[in-house]
Amino acid sequence: MAPAVPLALLALVALLAPGLVVAFPGCDYPPHLWCSSPEIAVACQAESRCANLSRPAAAPVELSLFYESLCSACRGFLVQQLFTTWLLLPSQVLNITLVPYGNAEERNVSGKWDFQCQHGPEECLGNMIEACLMHEAKDFSTYFTIIFCLESGSSVTKNLEACLQVYAPDLDKDRVMACVQGDLGPTLMHHNAQLTEALDPPHQYVPWVVINGEHTDQLQAQAEASLLGLVCRLYQ
């Protein structure tokens, strides 16, 4: 068997004699293409020389939070666990879905959706403000920061303008309130109701945490104790 040709020697040959192509068995590519893709690098035994090739990113941990805007336990989890964890982790590690609805109930009255919330009409208003914020802001980092501001402040429903001025001055309060007071807000809340009612197992309390499509008592307890530690253990 012929001795293996060192990769460095092959590269030198390619530089000094570009018309002469020396390849490994299974490598049908000229040396200047060996680092053009992970598959070619493997075929040409060039992985160690291809610093530009990175490993594919792991799938992010998917977390959905089902909550109510005035629920004290929900506010505590969102502010102290979820927002802090999101700030500390790289953006590709954790995807968050917020579903403000919780233990509310809906009914169709003359073709329009009407909602009854656990903590009264003020909570229904808070839920709808946050749903409309998500719709109007679009960008997660923008609306999550505003929702954090609302949930950590003295009033979820009265601090919208102040939170927008600090965290999203380009987002007009009137746009958000037009959504709340028009037909769009109830439509968004109806969608959140459907998402909540479709939970399997059905939610029994709030905050209700679903991670990678799964809810268990163990996951819930770990999320409430140390969400950052849980996400870091789950991220592969």
UniProtKB/TrEMBL annotation:
Signal peptide: 1-23
GO BP annotations, alphabetical order: immune system process
Source organism, top-level taxon: Eukaryota
GO MF: oxidoreductase activity, acting on a sulfur group of donors, disulfide as acceptor
Keyword presence, Oxidoreductase: yes
E.C. code: 1.8.-.-
InterPro entries: Interferon-induced_GILT
Pfam families with a match to the protein in the record: GILT
Keywords: Disulfide bond, Glycoprotein, Immunity, Lysosome, Oxidoreductase, Redox-active center, Secreted, Signal
GO cellular component: extracellular region; lysosome
Function statement: Lysosomal thiol reductase that can reduce protein disulfide bonds. Facilitates the complete unfolding of proteins destined for lysosomal degradation. Plays an important role in antigen processing.
Family in the record: Belongs to the GILT family.
UniProt protein name: Gamma-interferon-inducible lysosomal thiol reductase
